[in-house]
Amino acid sequence: MLVPVKWLKEYVDINNLETKELADKLTMSGSHVDSIELVDKGVEGVVVGKILEINPHPNADKLVITVIDVGEKTLQIVTGADNINEGDYIPVALHGAKLPGGIKIKRGKLRGIESQGMLCSAQELGIAEDLVPKKIKNGIFILDKEYPIGRDIKEILELYGEIIEFEITPNRPDCLSIIGMARETAATLGKELKHTKINIENEYEDIYEYMNGIEIKDEDLCNRYYGRVIKNVKVEESPMWIQRRLIESGVRPINNIVDITNYVMLEMGQPLHAFDLNKLEGKKIIVRRAKPEETIETLDGTERKLTEEMLVIADEVKPVALAGVMGGLNSEVTDITDTILIESANFDKRNIRLTSRAVGLRTEASSKYEKGLTSDIAEMACNRVCQLIEMVEAGEVIAGYIDVYPKKSEEKKVNVRINKVEELLGIKITEEQMIDILERLELRCKIKDNEIEVDVPSFRQDLEIEADIIEEIGRVYGFHNIPSQPLMGSLSKGEKSRLRRIEDLVKNILVGMGLNEITTYSFISPKDFDKISLPESSFKRQYVKIMNPLGEDYSVMRTTLISNMMDVLSKNYKKGIERSWAFETGNIFIPNGVPVNSLPYEIRTLSIGMYGDVDFFDLKGIVEELGNVLGIKDIEYMPERNNNTFHPGRTATIVKGNHVLGVLGEIHPDVTENYGVKDRTYVAELDLDIINLLSNLNKKHKELPKYPGMTRDISILIDDDIMVKDIEKIVWDNGDGLIEKVELFDVYKGKQVPEGKKSVAYSIKYRSYKKTLTDEEVTKVHDKIINELSQRLNAVLR
Fold this sequence. Notes:
Helix 4 packs antiparallel against helix 11 and helix 5 (about 240-250) crosses helix 6 (about 255-270). The strands form ten sheets. The protein has a seven-stranded mixed β-sheet with strand order 28-31-32-36-35-34-33, sandwiched between helices. A hairpin with a 3-residue loop joins strand 20 (about 320) and strand 21 (about 325). The chain folds into six domains: about 1-40 and about 160-190, Phenylalanyl-tRNA Synthetase, Chain B, domain 1, CATH 3.30.56.10; about 45-155, CATH 2.40.50.140; about 205-405, Phenylalanyl-trna Synthetase, Chain B, domain 3 (Phenylalanyl-tRNA Synthetase, Chain B, domain 3, 3-Layer(bba) Sandwich), CATH 3.50.40; about 410-480, Phenylalanyl-tRNA Synthetase, Chain B, domain 1; about 500-695, BirA Bifunctional Protein, domain 2; about 710-795, Ferrodoxin-fold anticodon-binding domain (Alpha-Beta Plaits), CATH 3.30.70.380. The protein contains 20 helices and 40 strands. It is elongated. It is an alpha+beta fold.
């Protein structure tokens, strides 16, 4: 919210206070200041001038020679502007003038003709391009009336002072106005708030001669609709003081009628709208829900399809505005408009928010309505518009009004225990101080049985309970004025859960092995399941849909981390990164039934992904190291041939007893092609909840061996389809507790090996922790192993 300090001064006496000090005090009382901006962008030496003559340039068709009266002298200035006329009052930069951006103006010649200064546009005076009125956007700034010639333009356009930008929290819509911030300023500084006096000098005829009434059909969406009529309207430019207020508040001037409704919206916080009354069929306003397939062309020229959930303002035939969002082009106020209806209404905040989002249109009005406004300011704001229209002679106010107010808001009462204030704030504060603070905030109070009975005005919808009122006392008193006290009471020691400790350990292990941690969104696109080739029958396609997604690409909750990992690897690959090792820990979301009627199961999951000079065994080694550090022994790797995401011959399911820890392997070439990755890519996905269950972090240590070990090699010929793990299991099971290490060092298939066979060679290290082994003892165990391999696997010793 942009608040020009000079506008604020009209309501609170802060003339002797520096803007920085004011901002600091308001911040300390709870009004967060984002920034302070100077209105003067560095304009010097620019004065008001009057165009006396405009003559053609003898050497250039697109230039003209002007004679400008700047007070003490006349100047000859060459310009290319085509929007000027003799008699116009304009800003003139004299020789030596300075403009924003460090621009200096000097005398010179343009196509052989002397030019003694420059005529200025609005942008050249430091006014942002998007705030410049359309009429002068691409030309010289034409002043709205006669001003003293030679006067500094900064005085005429009020190019001085500061603008404070406040960050207004959603629970304080009352602060989204100049008066709202003036109220906060007055309460903070202990000063009087000067309220605007609304008085209409002349009123004519009767409103019912122009209107056939206002009807609210959907009272749940519109709580109040207040209307007044203006006749003999003159649509023209607004006076400069109104334009300057709008520009400094971040609103572009349009014309006097629109500008006045925007002015009052900024001043009081109530959005207003003006309809061309002659365009309303039946001379009646009907507030209703849109009809099926109904459309409206809004003021921005866009045809918008409406739904039955949207509220519209309609006449007897058609919608003429999208309630609380934007008016319709078919009721727009134009240069030929003669009679207007001023709308000041109150709409349901949730409906406005949903409508604004559905049509993709967020306006100043909708941003205020969606935060929740009081119905009580509708009448005051409408009358303020009428007052300003009369003041600037833009029309004549018709006597009377139409006010449809089905359910008037009830004033809330909150009782505050006086002793509770001291208890919560930790300070001694008198009853008189409490009441003074609350009444400065326009909360009426009276003492009753050691309690303060507070009448909460309708514009403070955030105040509902005793603690809310005490907080108001505290913030205006100044939380910084409350002395700090040491904390009292007992504290319990907090610690991470076992799962989080396991997860931290997993992350440290993976980072230590050279992997980078990534974080991705928990919601994905349904198309991602197709990209990773999930079968239609897969349970992972039973996902949770998001009710209000950011878009199709983020519309469902993920049931696997593989698609997220492939997205990240793909982005790295496409950026020319030759090697990428990454991991992610996060939740997947599995519905507990279809349709989804309750919260899904959340399973903590780990994914590891890599490409670039790696193979299956690199990934397998990482998983094995995780198992070793986490104390998960006897992990097995079972061939997996029915997972369409992975290569059928290079994929394994990771198993420990009856528990499936996850899957690892090479991603199927069809899947990598879907992601635009040409390198072989390897991914593992593991269930961290199962890993947590199986982990054993209690390490057992034993002394270094005292006795020497003995190594024997063994080379056997076996069928090609026998797995290494089956061989190793037989070796360990028959080692009689004397085997310290079993290491595979050769697998051979070639000319000397029959078809369908392979040669496998192991190095087996024997050691006893009780004595020195003899050759006979080792030979006995070694022969036993060879015999078991022969009987169970038909192995032949080579």
